[in-house]
Design goal:
- With about 350 residues, the chain is α/β, with parallel strands linked by helices.
- Helix content is about 35%, strand content about 15%.
- The chain contains 13 helices and nine strands.
- The structure holds calcium ion (CA).
C-alpha cells in the first residue's frame, strides 16, 4: 500500500460562518443526569474526523465529566492530533484539558497506512485553529495521577491505538488496576479487518500495545468494526442535514469531507466507528448484546499481525481447556435506530 495524499481545499468563507460556540446539550438525548453523579472519564484519541464526532458526543453528554483528553499519533501525526483535539473541544465549548501522549507505536512504525481523514485528519478544510494549547504534563502521567486520585472511578474511552494506555501499564500497572472501565473502539470484533483482512486499524497501528493491555486483564468493553452496520452510517442526506445543523454538525460536515469521499469511492455510506464506541458509554440502552471474551493479540511479523483472537466464554476449545479471565465485553448487538437518532440530534438539533 502507498500513502494517499489529498489536496488541501480552503473554504475560508464557510469556516468563518461557523460560530464556534458550544453545541446544545439538549441535543444529547440523555439530559436529566445529576451533575453530582457525572461519570469521570478520560478520552484517549488519535483525533481523526470520526474521533471528532465521538468527542462531540462525549462533550455534549450531561452524564460525563471529561477530566482530560489524552492525545496520540494514529489517524494523523501527534502534532496534528493535538491541534484537532483542542479545536474540537473548543467547538463543543468544553474546557477539558488536553495532554500530549505517544508520537509512535511501542516497537514498530508502519508508514504505509492510508490517510482516509485528509492530511490534517479533519478533511483538509482549514478548520483547525485552536486558541488553546495542550498542558505541559505528559499524557501517561496525567492518566496515572488521575486514576490514583480517583480509585475505582475513572473510565477511559480509547479511540485510537492503545499506546498511551500500554505505556501507563508499563509505568505503573498497580495504579492502572484502579481504573473503573476501559471502553475501546478497536479490533475487527467478529468480522473482517480494515487494515488487513484480519486486523483493524487501531490494533494494526500498534498490536504490541494491545498485547500489553489485553494481558493486564482490565475490565474492558470492545466496540469492534463489525458494529459499523449500514444503518449507523451517514449518507449524503445526513451530511446535508448536518451542514444546516448545530455548530457541531456544521463543523463535522466539513471535517468529514475526505472520509465521506473515501467511503463514496467504495460505493458506501460513511462509517463513524469512534462514535459507535462513545455511544456505548453514554447510551447504555444502545448496547443490545455483548459476549464475554478473553482476547489475545497477534504480534508476530506475519499476515496475522494485528488480529485479535477472541475466546468466548462458554465455547469449547479442545486444544485449550483453560482460558484466562474473560475480562472483555465484546459488543455484538446495537440499537442502530437509537444511535442514528441521537447522533443526528446532536448534529442537527432535531
Ligand atoms: Ca480514532
Amino acid at each position: 500500500m502507498k500513502k494517499i495524499y489529498f489536496s488541501t481545499l480552503l473554504s475560508a468563507i464557510l469556516v468563518a460562518a461557523l460560530v464556534m460556540t458550544a453545541c446544545s446539550k439538549s441535543g444529547s438525548g440523555d439530559s436529566g443526569a445529576d451533575s453530582a453523579a457525572k461519570r469521570k472519564v478520560i478520552i484517549d484519541t488519535d483525533a481523526g474526523s470520526d474521533d471528532a464526532a465521538a468527542l462531540m458526543l462525549a462533550a455534549t453528554s450531561e452524564k460525563l465529566d471529561i477530566l482530560g483528553v489524552t492525545v496520540l499519533y494514529g489517524n494523523v501525526p501527534l502534532d496534528a492530533a493535538a491541534k484537532n483535539a483542542l479545536m474540537v473541544l473548543e467547538v463543543c465549548g468544553s474546557d477539558a484539558p488536553a495532554y500530549i501522549g505517544a508520537d509512535k507505536p511501542l516497537t514498530k512504525y508502519r508508514e504505509e497506512m492510508i490517510s482516509v481523514h485528509g492530511e490534517d485528519g479533519m478533511g483538509d478544510q482549514d478548520l483547525i485553529h485552536p486558541k488553546g494549547s495542550a498542558e505541559d504534563k505528559a499524557a501517561v502521567d496525567f492518566m496515572l495521577e488521575t486514576i490514583k486520585a480517583n480509585p475505582g472511578e475513572v473510565e477511559i474511552i480509547a479511540l485510537g491505538p492503545l499506546t498511551n494506555i500500554a505505556q501507563a501499564i508499563q509505568k505503573d500497572a498497580e495504579t492502572m488496576k484502579l481504573v473503573k472501565h476501559i471502553w475501546v473502539m478497536g479490533t475487527a470484533g467478529f468480522g473482517p479487518g480494515n487494515a488487513s483482512p484480519v486486523a483493524e486499524f487501531n490494533v494494526y497501528s500498534d498490536a504490541e500495545s494491545y498485547d500489553i493491555v489485553l494481558k493486564a486483564e482490565l475490565p474492558m468493553t470492545i466496540v469492534g468494526l463489525d458494529c459499523m452496520l449500514e444503518e449507523t452510517r451517514l449518507s449524503q442526506a445526513d451530511m446535508d442535514a448536518m451542514a444546516k445543523g448545530t455548530d457541531c454538525g456544521k463543523f463535522m460536515n466539513k471535517a468529514f469531507t475526505k472520509l465521506f469521499a473515501f467511503y463514496q469511492s467504495l460505493g458506501q455510506n460513511m462509517g463513524v466507528p469512534d462514535a459507535l464506541a462513545v455511544a456505548a458509554v453514554i447510551w447504555p440502552e444502545y448496547v443490545l448484546e455483548t459476549k464475554k471474551c478473553y482476547g489475545v493479540a497477534c504480534i508476530g511479523d506475519d499476515a496475522a499481525y494485528g488480529q485479535i483472537i477472541l475466546y468466548q466464554e462458554g465455547a469449547v476449545y479442545e486444544a485449550m481447556p483453560e482460558i484466562g479471565n474473560y475480562n472483555l465485553d465484546v459488543v455484538t448487538g446495537i440499537d442502530t435506530k437509537l444511535y442514528k437518532k441521537n447522533f443526528m440530534k446532536i448534529m442537527t438539533g432535531k
